[in-house]
């Protein structure tokens, strides 16, 4: 015979049911609140000028290669006299045969290793010991000629073919160039002199150029005296560049950019020092009609923790060759010192493409002529066949936590009637100026906002908001021009 549960047990059972219902209701309320918060956040992010940028994942250091070769095993002699091109080539061939088993490392010991250009292979580590110097041979007859880059249609300096790089790679995967701060030296002085004297018939070659490749790590080495651009990743994915020193003379070393990501995706540049004869970093994606046709943007790029200098050009540039588009770029924790310009975006009618979703934060300018630059009349073209109706789009660009001293013109944003600059924002800016004239925050054809109080006083093109994002004063005329190139 079954006994009925006592009355107090039934009450407890009902109480448990009531508690379960309350808990279910509480969870449902939490879910609704979270969804509401997400919808609000998404709406908020479309209105305020701080943009969500996809941060690329750093390329992990691969496991140690199962096989290590010493360059001397292939006949290398590090006396600075013997040409070691064949030794490097034999080492690369030996490693290429190990691809299915994890690849191999080519160890370059201390010494000066003179060489003509050579190619890398997949699943390879090029390791430079402390006091190891790979030295580029100066005679251009040893430098191979390559077809023009498809997104440029010609050599950057001359029509037709271009010289290859000292260290080169195409269609590679899993490549590491690293070491104990060894050096790759392009001996660019002779190239720069011939360029200035107009004795070259082809565009000079970069120091290191990796093309159509993925999973690349370059770290802990010094690159110096490149004939042309120093480090040029072209149409690559998943690239990490860190702990680098990149050097060239700050004058009379033309076009020796430090790092030029070109149509690259998912890239980190961090923890490095760059002082060169042109832009320290220049993000690119093709030139006019050729870049538009090639159609490979540079996107998802993180640049952080750098000290850079450029007496001739800019610390960090985007363009001017940006016809495939540039988006989702974050530049943070950067000191630009003793430079002509700090951060610059440059383009022109005929480029097409876009520059959008660009975030600059925590930048310091020290002794810089012009701090922030957006320029829309950089009229260098590969030929006369560019499309004058190809108008680039510049929008969604934010500057926050910008500080410094010794700056002549803190901001010069030169939009135009054809290329207006849209949705630019400034927040938390205080830059010590060396010029006391009126026009030190210069604007033309600019739409955007200033959030909170900044110094120096912004141009009249921008709307003013308080720290709580409440409109204080709306710009009357965004197309007003306040540009003064006299200083």
Approximate strand percentage: 35-45%
Radius of gyration: 27 Å
Distance between the termini: 104 Å
How confident is the prediction overall: mean pLDDT? 90
Morphology call: elongated
How many beta-strand runs?
A: 30
- Individual helix count: 4
Largest sheet: 24 strands, mixed
Query: Which segments are poorly predicted (pLDDT under 50) over 5 or more consecutive residues?
Result: 1-52
Q: What multimeric state do the chains show? A: single chain
Helical residues, percent: 10-25%
Supply the helix-strand structural class. mainly beta
Question: What report would you give on this structure?
Answer:
Helix content is 14%, strand content 41%. With 487 residues, it is mostly beta strands. The protein has a 24-stranded mixed β-sheet that branches. A four-stranded parallel β-sheet has the order 5-10-13-16. A hairpin with a 5-residue loop joins strand 29 and strand 30. It is elongated, with a radius of gyration of 27 Å.
């Amino acid at each position: 015979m079954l006994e009925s549960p006592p009355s107090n047990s039934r009450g407890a059972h009902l109480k448990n049911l009531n508690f379960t219902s309350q808990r279910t209701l509480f969870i449902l309320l939490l879910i609704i609140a979270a969804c509401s918060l997400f919808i609000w956040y998404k709406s908020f992010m479309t209105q305020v000028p701080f943009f969500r940028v996809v941060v690329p994942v750093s390329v992990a250091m691969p496991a140690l290669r199962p096989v290590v070769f010493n360059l001397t095993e292939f006949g290398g002699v590090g006396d600075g006299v013997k040409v070691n091109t064949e030794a490097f080539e034999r080492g690369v061939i030996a490693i290429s045969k190990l691809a299915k088993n994890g690849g191999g490392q080519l160890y370059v010991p201390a010494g000066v290793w003179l060489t003509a250009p050579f190619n890398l292979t997949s699943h390879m580590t090029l390791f430079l010991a402390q006091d190891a110097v790979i030295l580029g041979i100066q005679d251009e007859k040893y430098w191979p000629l390559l077809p023009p880059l498809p997104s440029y249609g010609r050599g950057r300096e001359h029509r037709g073919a271009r010289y290859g790089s000292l260290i080169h790679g195409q269609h590679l995967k899993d490549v590491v160039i690293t070491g104990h701060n060894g050096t790759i030296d392009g001996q660019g002085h002779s190239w720069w002199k011939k360029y200035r004297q107009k004795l070259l018939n082809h565009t000079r070659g970069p120091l290191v150029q990796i093309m159509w490749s993925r999973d690349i790590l370059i770290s802990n080495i010094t690159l110096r005296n490149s004939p042309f651009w120093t480090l040029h990743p072209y149409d690559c994915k998943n690239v990490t560049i860190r702990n680098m020193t990149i050097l060239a003379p700050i004058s009379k070393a033309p076009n020796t950019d430090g790092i030029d990501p070109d149509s690259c995706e998912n890239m980190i540049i961090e923890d490095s020092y760059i002082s060169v004869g042109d832009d320290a970093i220049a993000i690119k994606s093709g030139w006019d009609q050729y870049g538009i046709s090639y159609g490979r943007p540079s996107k998802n790029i993180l640049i952080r923790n750098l000290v850079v200098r450029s007496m001739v050009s800019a610390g960090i540039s985007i363009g001017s060759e940006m016809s495939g588009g540039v988006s989702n770029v974050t530049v943070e924790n950067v000191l630009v010192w003793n430079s002509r310009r700090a951060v610059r975006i440059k383009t022109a009618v005929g480029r097409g493409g876009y520059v959008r979703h660009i975030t600059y934060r925590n930048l310091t300018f020290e002794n810089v002529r012009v701090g922030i630059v957006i320029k829309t009349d950089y009229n260098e073209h590969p030929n006369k066949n560019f499309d004058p109706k190809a108008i680039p789009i510049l929008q969604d660009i934010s500057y926050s936590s910008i500080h410094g001293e010794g700056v002549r013109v803190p901001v010069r944003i030169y939009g135009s009637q054809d290329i207006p600059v849209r949705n630019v924002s400034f927040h938390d800016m205080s830059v010590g100026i060396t010029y006391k004239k009126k026009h030190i925050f210069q604007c033309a054809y600019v739409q955007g906002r200033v959030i909170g109080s900044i110094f120096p006083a912004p141009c009249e093109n921008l709307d003013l908001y308080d720290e709580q994002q409440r409109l204080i004063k709306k710009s009357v005329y965004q197309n007003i021009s306040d540009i003064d190139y006299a200083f």
